[in-house]
Amino acid sequence: MPCPAYTTALRRRLQALSGRLLFHPYWSGPGRMLAARVELRHQVRALERLP
After folding, report:
1. Up-side HSE of residue 42: CA atoms within 13 Å toward CB?
2. What secondary structure, in 3-state letters, does the chain show?
3. Where would you tag: which of 11, 38, 43, 48 has the fewest CB atoms within 10 A of its CB?
4. Which residues contact 21 (CB under 8 A, 6 or more apart)?
5. pTM listed for this prediction
6. Within 13 Å and on the Cβ side, how many CA atoms surround 40?
7. 9-29: pLDDT as tens digits
8. CA-atom Rg of the chain in angstroms
9. What's the half-sphere exposure (Cβ side, CA atoms, 13 Å) at 19?
10. What's the farthest any 2 CA atoms get from each other in the chain?
């Protein structure tokens, strides 16, 4: 099991990257945000299935 401090650091990094993605000009176009969220969920679920 990962060290709690390491997990916290990863969580903070993920939140920072998520914020950058949310406000990036590419994703501000019409209709892109929903598709981006769906794709991000798919990628996270795929990563969760890894051993």
Report:
1. 6
2. CCCHHHHHHHHHHHHHHHHHHHCCHHHHCCCHHHHHHHHHHHHHHHHHCCC
3. 48
4. 27, 36, 40
5. 0.46
6. 12
7. 899 999 999 888 878 777 666
8. 14
9. 6
10. 41
